[in-house]
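Exercise 4. Each item below gives a protein and its sequence. For each, produce the structure-token representation.

Item: Cadherin-10 (Salvelinus namaycush).
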Amino acid sequence: MLRGRTVPLLLVLWAYLCSHGDGLRALKRTTGGRRGAALTLTGQDANGVPLRRSKRGWMWNQFFLLEEYTGLDNQYVGKLHSDGDRGDGSIRYVLTGDGAGTLFIIDENSGDIHATKRLDREEKAYYTLRAKAVNRITNTSLEGESEFLIKIHDINDNEPKFTKDPYFIHVPEMSPLGTVVMQVTATDADDATYGNSARVVYSILQGQPYFSVDPNTGVIKTALPNMDRETKENYVVVIQAKDMAGQMGGLSGTTTVSITLSDVNDNPPRFPKSLYEFKAPESSEPGSTVAVLRATDADIGRNAEMNYRITSSDGPAMFDISTNRSTQEGVITLRKPLDFERKRSYTLRIQVENSNPDPRFLRYAATTDEATVKLIVEDVDEPPVFDRVSYVMEVKEDSAVGTIIGSVSATDPDSSRSPVRYSIDRRTDMDRVFNVHPGNGSVFMLRTLDREENPWHNISVIATEFNNPRLISRIPVYIRVLDVNDNAPTFAAYYETFVCENAKANQRIQTVSATDADEPIGGHRFFFSLAHEVSGKANFTVRDNKDNTAGILTRRNSYSRLQRSTYLVPVVISDGDFPMQSSTNTLTVRVCTCDREGNMQLCNQEALVLTAGLSTGALMAIIICVLILLIIVVLFAVLRRQQRKKEPLIISKEDVRDNVVSYNDEGGGEEDTQAFDIGTLRNPEAIEETKRRRDIKPETLNPPVRQTVVLPPAYRDNSDVREFISQRLQDNDQDPTAPPYDSLATYAYEGSGSVAESLSSLGSVTTEGDQDYNYLSEWGPRFRKLADMYGGEDSDGYRDS
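Answer:
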């Protein structure tokens, strides 16, 4: 009601307050302040008492300012005025606080406040400032500091914005009408408390008629029932949010909602065909795959899993079916071998169903499907088949070579009935003891048998088709060798038997038993007796105990070790089988001296050794080992002695050797020709007094003075070089430059008296022309070749000079 007269009224109040008020006052050019009256209102109450009430002064605690001001001048905010301002310019207005001096400026003379920049309420909604009036001269406050607010009035300058863009959501297919999909939310940065700038309304721009949105809440719902994923799986819905309550002129924003229908198990599996036909060779092994079929299901994932089963078959227990979980295929496998000659085709009825059916959709359609599978068996050229899985044959060990032990039989299972050829796998009969007839499969012997050596023989017989030798079959044949009484019994052990010299007649000195390599069915029965040829003059007798043992008894009193130390008792052992086998075993009895209790005290040397537990063979082995050790020791000693023996320096007088020095030091190489001068040994005239070594520095040399030895010709020709060698030894001993270790110098001299004199070239003259080789022709036929080469004139009639 007062909006049209606001400005004149405020001006009147401002003038009144300036003339009557005592404090700092501010007026706003808008209706933001609250009005008061400077007039005094009078009256009387019900009792006639006079009333007096003065209205409050102007309240200026806040100003209002529109955001996003687009004018060219600074935006006027309001005016400050102090009651003490008389208009003479003595008062100065000061503004402090948020944005003072930058965003907001004040005219210090008039108190007018202006905004220097465009303000955005979404950036800052209000500013807090403080104002005071000070004396321009003294700079003292005339009044206390007052605080006030500048609030930014909102305008609709922000469009609604969704919290996400885009949205992704899944909703189950076949959902009923009105199923909540999701809720979208848009926010508006404008002031929700002022007008409709922030009041948002939702609407759907794209996605109808499948979905709808609530205009106030933004909840998206299905608008159609039973949407099928298999028909359409993905939907794009565009939602708009508009402020100003959706009125014209409002700002709007959009978002995209991607809705995907998730799968439910609403489709049963189906076979693409009602009849399937497969082929499988009859050679297929049990457990192998013979057919693979697959049903289709419009669902996906877990809802598309299915199970297969055989409902009927004309081959009971012939086949199995399983589901390949990675491909959802039905895999038919064999349980038994196929045989083309016996049955050439099979018919099966296969059923498929969902592994995880959804009860909600069971009433809509059949949940299973069936198909017929026909399996055709293909003929394959198969190897021969034996009528057994193995053969066991028996033969007596005394059977003759060529005896037929048994026979094997194999046939070609194919319709061609190819003949079969038999042979033995020689890897199982390396000794070629058996053979098989290639035509009829009879197994016979090639060598004699011995049950005691090998009671069983395991061989393999091979059957091969004549028409196709690559097709073979093997069968194991176990041959048992039956026992025949062909081994005579013998002593069960080696017996160490002795008799005391003071033994009595009929005294048992030993109990013997027997063993037999044969194995009679009824067990062994041995008979013991003394050999017939010695029974009349025997010193001992044999008593059969009827339990496969026998006792050795004395036949006279007392035995003399000195007269006879050993007795040989022949014992005949025979078995009770047919044909009877017997053998004569000799028992050695030693005569020993015993005490009264019959304990042995003394026997001959051999008997003592045997009594101590060593047989003659063991004693010989020990002796041989000792002899071998002695031989090894002797050979080792001889070899060591030969290694220690030094090799002579000069093997023979005819062996002329140079000066040999052996030491581990680096020599001077090929130029080191003066270290050891052998020429001085052969030509004493050529001995130099001071020959320096070339393998060390000259300044370090301090060789001893060496004297020249001059010998007369006769003495040089016939004398020994012992004196010269002694001189050389003395020179080496006194040489301070000699190596700091021992050295070996070897000198050899060929001697004197040779007809050919010395053959060494060390003492020869330097030129060949001075030599006269005519004397070679006088040495005989052995030197004729040399005489022809060097003794005569050249073919050209001249000699080299």
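Check: Residues 616-644 form the longest helix (29 residues).
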